[in-house]
Specification:
The complex is a heterodimer of chains A (600) and B (237). Chain A has 600 residues and is of the alpha+beta class. Chain A has 24 helices and 17 strands. Chain A has one domain. In chain B, helix 3 packs across helix 9. The N and C termini of chain B lie far apart (43 Å). The complex binds iron/sulfur cluster (3 copies).
């Protein structure tokens, strides 16, 4: 529509309040400046929310599903969908606005993003609120909002099947929420293919607030590219960089689960609510054990030569089908962080969390916090509705997961996250409430890894392990998550050049390494502008005290703890290098001018 | 082939490897699990006479690269007078990956059935010169082709294939004429070449082999029973 190669130039706008949909042209300059995925999603959010403090659960807050310029082409690992919205979880220490919160984005693999592009769109933006539980069916140009009350309360595993049957065509690609999203648990997730999720940052909660159970997409089109021949040549090189390599095979062999043992040995794993960095029983829940006892298949996302996802089956009391896992994040958050080393029990917890539609990371973090508070006697069994939430207890963990998703009793409070819980409990529990800006930390522990601490405190969505440990990494990843390509293959250095060549050949905009990172920097700074406008300041870029006070007592990094003044110095330097005011973190005019964000 | 060599090497399945896989399984059911029923005929065949595409379901990851490779090859584009592979829109692929829950993926491709129920179902009288109906089998490659000039778009072939075999034939949405019969890419099957996991092979079979291609639902049910001990599925209706 815009005539710009590599894109349809079109966003599909759906308003659930009015029951209408329309195609909207994307300003061509935005495509060059914000690309797609996380970046273009951020720009759309910025354009739609013209003032700070808008309630993330109000009909006004857009829920944005973004593929990128790679999506829909046979580019290796071009599988990602970035979901962007205003966070229902985060908040600043102080703000003039009651509903102040950060931007939120969550990135998932699978087949949904490419299918959005096949259907003829560069993104889907959903606003409004349906009168009753509904779902959306998009088949190329045809867009229908349908009533879906019969799906109310349905868990995701069964919904995935029932929904496809109802649609009558398995070529539809679907995303949906579980009971947790319907119940507006702040850290509810959006699921895709029963085992993939846009987990972090409350995407399922925002979807639930719109009374939207699911979206199905199917399409038959594809955008054109700027330079067909150059694209094909670069694609060939990209495939050769990955196909059959030891690097690709190592992903197929263990996926991220390899790091469960690796990071434990390195002292960088979340163990016992981040009290330790090493889990002596890590090998019982690691990749080798899973390969031996659980996994039956390696599964890949769209056009991916890595196949890091695994499905399998377990036996015994907790036995059943495993859609995915253990992965590093799920295996650690529900495993070592809770001192659970029973593999079937661990996988049962992971499966149930996906089934209910919760974020694996926040859920594991919250339960770890409660286990510690319970052990320390800050809360009793009555506070926990009778659940004996001891370290390592699978049954207690499963009971707590159900409570959280249902927002039942203690689950209602626990569903609000560790910051709210610790404020309620008091007694110094803030020290081990492991969150930044209200979002729980992920499975990477930091007493022995200060740079990852920087990633957690400066990430735009609250504690995020993926943001990047320094400025260059942050800029690069903000850009990468805007293209539709997965992060994992990009550790292979030989992919770099063909990746840039493909992006240039598709879009007609020339990307070298510098332009790639500059665009990422622009995206990261727009996120910062959004957060700053909401009231986030330096005081919000703050780690819990545990990391400065509780040195590891076991493992190879025994004795490690962060040094507060060193950490502060590092942060000051970071803001300076970013071109932000180091007192307030406000991006300076010169930086905004340099990035073309001064008049935004 | 210079550039393709590396990927091709990694992805191609040797005849010995195939027989070994069959031998390990030791039965038709396991064989089905790995290669589809029609693999049996090949394993037992004597003199190889022609080539066809076989999928190893145990290796397939459901990545759908084969769909894009097939589409790119069979729907080329012409740019300044030169014919080049297309952009690989999977919608037009002759091989289709069917995905189920729990996680089973079945790439489904024309089984080149030796008794061709699709051709037999074609109501158009054989041409006097060529003896071909509107749907016919190429005597050399054994691939199935449609003659759009004579085809009346009645979809009888699609029905026959869907009820008796793989169901790959998809009538064109406007003309009703059959599409998606495997062309073997004129001798260099792109799905085989591009599969990142070596799950597809181009193998030699006897032309008089006895085998029947199964639909993806049936194959998926068998695979799920073997892998997860269940045949409870989504997306079957
Ligand atoms: S390319 Fe190979 S692994 Fe991927 S879906 Fe096709 S057969 Fe399966
Ligand atoms: S699979 Fe279908 S199209 Fe192919 S030969 Fe058999 S019946 Fe004909
Ligand atoms: S051999 Fe060629 S036409 Fe046949 S399925 Fe493979 S890619 Fe498609």
């Amino acid at each position: 529509m815009s005539g710009k190669p590599g894109y349809h130039g079109v966003i599909l706008n759906i308003n659930l309040s009015t029951g209408t949909s329309e195609k909207v042209a994307i300003p061509p300059a935005d495509l060059d400046r914000f690309v797609g995925g996380q970046g273009l999603g951020m720009k759309i959010l910025w354009d739609r929310l013209k003032k700070p403090g808008i309630n993330p659960l109000s009909p006004e807050n857009p829920l944005i599903f973004m593929p990128g310029p790679f999506s829909g082409f046979p580019v290796p690992s071009s599988s990602r969908t970035c979901v962007v919205t205003k966070s229902p979880i985060t908040s600043p220490m102080k703000s003039d606005y009651r509903h102040a919160s950060t931007v939120s984005y969550s990135n998932m693999g699978g087949f949904f993003g490419p299918e959005i592009r096949f259907a003829g769109y560069d993104g889907i933006v959903i606003t409004g609120k349906a009168k009753e539980l509904s779902y959306i069916v998009i088949d190329d140009d045809k867009v229908e909002i349908r009533e879906g009350k019969r799906f109310k309360g349905m868990r995701t595993d069964v919904f995935d099947k029932v929904f496809l049957d109802a649609l009558g065509d398995r070529r539809f690609k679907t995303v949906y929420i579980g009971p947790a999203g319907e119940n507006l648990v702040p850290y509810a997730s959006i699921l895709h293919t029963a085992g993939r999720a846009a987990g972090r940052g409350g995407m399922g909660c925002v979807m639930g607030s719109k009374n939207l159970k699911a979206i199905a997409v199917k399409g038959s089109g594809q955008p054109g590219v700027a330079d067909h021949q150059r694209f094909l040549a670069a694609l060939e090189k990209a495939r050769l960089a990955l196909y059959g390599t030891a690097y690709a095979k190592s992903w197929a062999e263990q996926g991220t689960a390899r790091a469960i043992v690796g990071n434990s040995n390195a002292g960088t794993e979340a163990v016992r609510n981040y009290r330790e960095g090493t889990f002596p029983e890590a090998d019982r829940i690691g990749g080798d054990a899973a390969r031996r006892d659980v996994w039956v298949r390696d599964i890949a996302c769209y056009c991916c030569p890595l196949a890091c996802k695994k499905s399998g089956i377990t036996k015994g009391k907790y036995g059943g089908i495993v859609h995915d896992g253990p992965e590093y994040e799920t295996g650690v958050m529900l495993g070592s962080n809770l001192l659970i080393s029973d593999m079937p029990g661990l996988l049962k917890a992971i499966t149930v969390i996906d089934d209910l539609g919760l974020d694996q990371i926040s859920t594991g973090n919250v339960i770890g916090f409660l286990m510690e508070a319970y052990e320390k006697g800050m809360i009793d069994r009555k506070f926990l509705d009778g659940i004996d939430l001891k370290w390592g207890s699978v049954d207690a963990t499963l009971a707590m997961i159900e409570k959280i998703a249902a927002r039942d009793g203690i689950g209602a409070l626990a569903g609000k996250g560790v910051r709210t819980l610790s404020r309620q409990i008091g007694k110094g529990s803030e020290k081990f409430a492991i969150q930044v800006k209200g979002l729980e930390l992920a499975a990477h522990n930091i007493q022995a890894n200060q740079p990852r601490g920087l990633s957690y405190v400066t990430a735009s969505r609250g504690a995020c392990h993926m943001s990047g440990d320094n400025i260059a990494m942050q800029n690069r990843r903000a850009m990468l998550d805007s293209t539709g390509m997965c992060f994992f293959p990009t550790f292979e250095p030989a992919l770099e050049e063909p990746m840039l060549a493909m992006l240039s050949a598709i879009t007609g905009h020339e990307y070298d390494k510098a332009e790639f990172e500059k665009t990422g920097e622009r995206i990261f700074n727009l996120e910062k502008l959004f957060n700053y406008r909401e009231g986030f300041r330096r005081a919000d870029d703050r780690l819990p005290d545990r990391f400065f006070e509780d040195a590891f007592t076991i493992g190879p990094k025994k004795g490690s703890v962060l040094d507060r003044s060193k950490f502060d110095t590092m942060l000051s330097q970071y803001y300076k290098d970013r071109g932000w005011d180091s007192e307030t973190t406000k991006p300076k005019k010169a930086k905004l001018q340099e990035l073309g964000l001064d008049s935004i | 082939m210079k550039n393709g060599d590396k990927s091709h090497e990694w992805t191609s399945l040797t005849r010995r490897g195939f027989i070994k896989g069959v031998g390990l399984g030791g039965g038709a059911m396991v064989l089905l699990g790995q290669f589809g029923v029609h693999g049996l005929a090949w394993a037992l065949s004597g003199d190889p006479e022609l080539k066809m595409v076989l999928v190893d379901y145990n290796k397939c990851t459901g990545c759908r690269t084969c769909e894009t490779a097939c589409s790119a090859e069979n729907w080329p584009v012409v740019i300044s007078g030169r014919k080049l592979p297309g952009l690989g829109n999977p919608r037009f692929a002759n091989i289709r990956v069917h995905s189920f829950s729990p996680e089973v993926d079945v790439p489904s491709v024309c089984a080149m059935c030796s008794d061709t129920p699709c051709v037999k179902a074609c109501p158009v009288d054989p041409d006097v010169k060529t003896n071909r109906r509107a749907l016919y089998r190429d005597q050399v490659t054994h691939t199935i082709h449609n003659d759009p000039a004579r085809c009346i778009g009645c979809q009888s072939c699609a029905k026959a294939c869907a009820t008796q075999r793989t169901g790959v034939i998809t009538p064109n949405s406007t003309t009703g004429k059959p599409e998606r019969m495997c062309t073997l890419c004129g001798g260099d099957p792109q799905c085989v070449k591009r599969c990142p996991f070596g799950a597809i092979s181009s193998v030699e079979v006897r032309s008089d082999r006895k085998f029947y291609g199964l639909g993806p639902d049936k194959i998926a049910a068998e695979l799920a029973k073997g892998w997860y001990g269940t045949a409870e599925f989504g997306g079957m209706k």
